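User: Show me an example of a complex going from sequences to structure tokens.

Assistant: Sure. Here are the input components:
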Amino acid sequence: MSQRINPLLLSPALLLSLGPVVAIEARAERYMSENEAAELIFPGEKFTSQTIELSEAEAEKIADISGERVRTKQVQVLRSPKKNFVFIDQVLGKHEFITYAIGIGADGKVRGVEILDYRESYGYQVRNQDWRAQFHGKDVEAPLKLTKDIKNITGATLSSAHITSGVRRILRTYEAVRIRI
Amino acid sequence: MKPSVFESKRARPLLGTTLTICLRTDSEDGNPLIDKLFQRAVFLEGLFSLHQHQSELSRWNRGECENTNPLLQALIAESLALEQESGGAFCPHRGKDIDLNGIAKGAIVDFLVEAAEEMGCLGGSVNAGGDLRTFGDFCKNVDLRLGPPDAPLSRNFSPRLRAVASSQVAQSIYSENSSTRYPLPLRANLETNDTVTVNADRAALADALTKVALFGEHEKIEACAKNHNATILIFDDKGEPKEIFGIR
């Protein structure tokens, strides 16, 4: 069984350096917009946005080759006149929902990946419903309330594993739909 | 009136985690500087990562390096010295190979901070999956993430020094399938939902000392923390400090 230390053993300075313990219900952070990501990955280019609907067969093939389930058949992609593309994708962890942009050049190579925003939730309501259901499709019906600006967070943070898997799936998606976009 | 200080913040999946860089500059667009720092991170990962077959470390382990990069040499030397000092609790080995997994992320954070300062940034922070360091004119308060992974707790911390690293015990348990794969057993006094937090002047040190605190003997942890002017706090599953080592 753990034993708490006597607070008197901590120096006054260290005691004062620690704020109260608070349960984390939800957090969100927004880094940039889709257009800002496109500008960063392909500077100076103009992009138009479109949504592509994957067929059942395409979704199955993408899942099969990438090893990643296709969560939604609606694919959001920005396209430039030079045939550079920026796919906007979302990945789900157990408690995290991350939106990111992946730039793919006309040569089919990845030009950059930028995280756009993330949300995490541990609230009572979330634990008692299908958390993922609220993120089906593009529209989020009940966006999580942004918490106050927290600059530096230490401890367990976002894993990049989901994004890495997402990139793999998006590359297969690009191959499947490149003729159409 | 136009502001004279601008803040830019971006995050990318890098170093096997999320690398977040925040810069305060007197230039409206800090993004070109952040781009350079991301590129530098990729270069440094190419030096220190054992996961990359063609990294300089991997080639060094295979005896293929004629002129080893001095940054890699220095990090290997620091790791071996800390191994000795900690009685083996900090373990930079994987089989016969040198493995810098326990210190490399923190070291990269330090190099990026130094690079940002050289580029003239007024302040900022570099955070590699929770191993973080602030610098210059930037808030140094840290939000500690504590408690069980499925019901985390938060506690604001105003650190004495600018680098903070945390490790959750639950994610440090040795397993063939875990990304940690640290080859030592956890210290007996630790419980699954405890969190180790280290405050030091460099992120590499903070990163490495979390391993000393997780796997070392009590006396070695205290000696290492004091010797490096660091503070090590162990928090329990309620977010309350249960152990303290080093500078109090």
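The lines above are the inputs; the final block is the predicted structure for all two components together. DSSP finds six helices and twelve strands in chain B.
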